[in-house]
Amino acid sequence: MDFIDPHIHMVSRTTDDYETLARMGCVAISEPAFWAGFDRGSADGFRDYFEQLTAVEPRRAAQFGIEHHCWLCINAKEAENVSLSREVISMIPEFLDRPGVLGIGEIGLNKNTKNEATIFLEHLDLAVEHDQLILIHTPHLEDKYQGTRMILDMLCDDSRINPDRVLVDHVEEHTIGEVLDRGFWAGMTLYPVTKCTPDRAADMIERFGGERLLANSAGDWGVSKPTAIPDLIFQMRRRGYDEALIRRVVYDNPAEFFAKSGKFVQPVR
Ligand SMILES: [Zn+2]
């Protein structure tokens, strides 16, 4: 089955991963800007990173027939440095008109600090001013529930934000209900260490149905599995799910959400 991975950090993955993804049915991906495993020392470090996301990775993906899209921001971890964050945010508009840029992300919180919240709100201003979609990173483990509530409150307190143009990623059983109830799109991250397994994701699909629900691998430089979506497809087929529901979660929903940017390239098969 053709699928889209809406959240994967291919700058950290090998070219062999692109080939494997293509062989397994991946036709498009989107790559949010994120932490590189180390704190970058200057705004120029981010300029190079945005160049990589908007120019280098699309070429690498195209070799395997995969459409590459991306999101730009300074991530919540490095947002602790407010002055650096402001330099990066002021540079982002230079890149927003490039093909394949879907919006601002992945923004959010990491340790739920005041600085992170300040920079999160400044990213919302940037997204609104430039009419961009938003992709949200919610914190992991013990910080997830409180961090997700804080993020949803900040989004809902801003009357300029349309929840239908926001994807909230890394939802789990204790956060997914509120994300969907408030009208946002929700992304389940399949991950071997933290976050959720294909089995738990299938349970959430059973509970909440397929509307506004996406799945991603969040493959990055850490322990992660870029082919996690085929694992979910396998799990759903084992449970006897309708093919249309499977396709909705792994293809139709990401395509529908990305199309709101006006810049999503529908893969040609
Ligand atoms: Zn990520």
From TrEMBL:
Transmembrane regions listed in the UniProt entry:
none
Keywords for this entry?
Hydrolase, Metal-binding
Family, per the entry? Belongs to the metallo-dependent hydrolases superfamily.
Q: Which organism is it from?
A: Allorhodopirellula solitaria
The name this protein carries in UniProt is: TatD related DNase
Q: Which PANTHER family match?
A: HYDROLASE TATD
Q: A GO molecular function for this record?
A: metal ion binding
Fetch the InterPro entries from UniProt.
Answer: Metal_Hydrolase, TatD-like, UCP005295
